[in-house]
Design goal:
17% strand, single chain, alpha+beta, elongated, eight-stranded mixed barrel
Length: 857
Amino acid sequence: MSREPGEHAKPSGQTTQTSTARAVVAIGVVSGLVALLYVLELSSLKPVGGERLPLLPVVALGVWASSAHAVNVRTRKISIDITLSEIPVLLAIVFLPPGPALAAVCVGVSAALIHRRHPPIKTFANLAGYLLSVSAGILLYDDLLGKSTSPVRELGWVVSLGTVTFICLTDLVLVLAMMAFADRRWRRPPLAPMLIQAGLYIIVCTSLGLVAVSMVWINTWGIALFAAIALATNFAYRATVVSGQRYANLEKLYDFTRRLSGLSEGRDVMNTVVEEARTLLSAGRAELVIPLGSPLEQLVVRCRLDGEDTPIVDQGATISRLDSLAGERAPMLFSIRSEDQEVASAMRDRGLHEALVAPLQREDPKAGYLLVGDRPSQQDGFSTSDLRFFEALAVNAGVALRSSNLLEQLRREIEVRQHQAYHDSLTGLPNRVAFRERLADSLETNTEGEVAVLLMDLDGFKEVNDTLGHVTGDAVLREVGRRLTSFSGPQSLVGRLGGDEFAVLLCSASDHLDVEATTHQVMSSINQPLAVEGLMLDIRASMGVAVAPHHGRSREATNLLRHADVAMYLAKEAGGGVRYYDPSEDRSTLRRLTLATELRRALDEDGLDLWYQPVVELETGEVLGCEALLRWNHEKFGPISPVEFIPVAENAGLIDPLTWWVLETALTQLKTWRELVPGLGVAVNLSAKSLTGTKVYDRVERSLQRAGMKPGALTLELTESSMAIDPESSQRAMQSLQELGVCLSIDDYGTGFSSLSRLKHLPFNVLKIDRSFVKEMIRDKGDEAIVRSTIELARSLGRTVTAEGVEDKATLDRLASLGCHAAQGYYLARPLPAAECESWLREFVRWPSTVGHIGQG
């Protein structure tokens, strides 16, 4: 007898492997118990009814026949195979020694399981469990009946009943235990219906078994008469059961059709079809699949029910290989063990082992199909009679679905959803998804002409929303969309990508002039005055243009769209208008992204260097200090200029840690050099982020303390632009640093936007004149005037001046005559690595007697 609980859940691959491993362990344990029980107890026992070895093949044949040709009785909860295998087993217990008895049972059960094509793990599990049950039954029968009592007397009947009961229940418990150990889904089986069916089975097997034992007790060959009677009874019973099942199937089909006819909503019909199909076929899984047809040929509606969950409807699912095969070959029984590799592969893709597939319309198999699959641990799986019943079920389901107009309803819903997925709800224009797909298709198909993206953003649109409200803002967007619609055609597309951002795609521009002409027309169209709710609004836009192949086809749509975006933001920063993409202006190139990652690694792994450029006092010729300059020699790109990697650090959020690394490294180096030049100082550039940070005072103080340096040894250089970002915070930070005793220098003076009125209130010590004014001051009277006025301004404010970029002796002499306090530049010393700068400091002698000589050397 096979007990089959009606619970199912599709396991994952990992769960299946775990279940298999556990099943192997369980089989090993049960097999070991069988061997141990035989060696310790059974090997010495003699049969109670006397040894009748001619029955050996009869028992084996009887076990095989009863197990291999079971009658299946199926309910909604469980599936039971009536095998009556305990009848020949009872004969073996009474008349055969334990060893031959177990051998005959083993041969019969194995042959039956192989005949039914069970998987190896399942075969061994069933065999091991049944042999253990029979072994324990033999021992129980011998202990209860003894050697002196006849097996055909009243006590023998009772013991036979107890033994059959024990074997059935033990087998049931062992099978359930091994399945629960292998898979947790079996830990709560429907025990009540199982026990009821098992009780009826035990009574039938015991009664017929006692008849067989009595006939053999009288005469060994009485078994032939019993076999004839059993065979005739089996045929009669099968005929009765088969006819009963046919009648039951007709009744089920009638109830199924009646239930569907009472439903008007298409979705209710779908849910009921899969629920009833799974229940009526005792399947673990059911699916209803309906192709959508033109213009959605590659999509289907899939309603599936798996486990005890409610049905799930997937509208617009992509058609699968199994869907295609079902449309070509239904109705049929699909199996993962099929010799057709296409079928087996499609089954594996869908996680199915066995399935019945039937079309919803006999005359048109491609109109959709119904599927049920994977009976939970079913002994025989699906049969041809199941397929005939299921085919009728599917046809009735198809009629009900057509009556509910479900397909047309679903098709309309999906078309609406498809339109919404690819169009903007406010303007009706294609959205970013549709625009990108069309762009990718254009780049792939157009290999000769130009493909251009014109990306525009409305200037001042936020003010429109804030001032006039979102209703007016939406009206502006709709009007802009309407104006741009005229530029959409077979070789172009207009889309709204989000917010106030619109784009025009030219799929096949003849040349660059064609792109420029369209760009001009689009901007002219947008810039026309716009009337909204009685108001005349002047709308302007910033446009970025990227053209393939000039601006790269790599990564296709994503790259070209990003390039247009970069150009558009540059146009917006410039105050509006049109800007074409220029790779040199792209702050997000692949090289920059790579540098950001590599810069972080270089900072963590000491891959950066500090070079130093000496600063000399012009009046005395003494070395006042050295400016610390950050250098990066990349292993792939070679030396990288600070002009390139400092913006990368700012964008990547690395400028703050870089600043503090430079500060601490420079102060540590200064401590060593002060042994050579006692009054030497060091200058470090301080970033705007570090300056306005809340802990700048504490960080500088801690760095000085760690290096053992006094604040006066440190000069922090700040640019005018860094102070202009947050003037109030900058001034407060500078005030606190000056109170600490640190020297403050305003770097690159003359290139920023600070006013003179603001300059006089800033707490600083030194003004550094930018090299752009110093290097040409001998030849350019305007530059000399700026240098002279700066020196006079600093002197009037009580500050000193340092000149950068001194490249010749004439410039140095002129600066000295103007009263410049200090200078640095290539004439005095280039930026030098730490070791070379130390050598320079050792050799340097007071200026002016030897400065000229060192500069020329």
